[in-house]
């Protein structure tokens, strides 16, 4: 499966073979472990999103995920959210940091291809 549209419904089951996750603009959060260990996921599209939370381990172990752009509306990136995303090379935050205040422990741990992350000044808590 190449693309899946995520609506954030309770109990929603995302196919593990998805390559691109398209998050519906009105989804408020990515559930805990929503895409954990999805080995084929390379892209997450948050276009027009009002997303506020990326849940704990939401994308943990997505070894083919290449880059991520955190929407301006996000306030919290959960613990282990992108942990062990070994192909992740780029993490982009909104230039002014947007509403982001919290980055959980180990959010980007073991992302061996990630050379640098610029933490926005809006962040008050890490870990």
UniProtKB/TrEMBL annotation:
Native species: Cylindrotheca closterium
InterPro entries: LRR_5, LRR_dom_sf, Surface_bspA-like
PANTHER family: IG-LIKE DOMAIN-CONTAINING PROTEIN, SURFACE ANTIGEN
Protein's recorded name: Leucine-rich repeat domain-containing protein
